[in-house]
Amino acid sequence: MSRGVLYIVWGDNAKARVESSIASLRRFHPELPVHVEELGPAFAGHRGLLEKARMNDFSPFEQTLYLDADTTVMGKLDYGFEQAERFGIACAHSECPWGRRYRKIPQRGDTVEYNTGVLFWNRATTAHVF
Question: What pLDDT, on a 0 to 100 scale, did the predictor assign at position 74?
Answer without folding.
Answer: 95
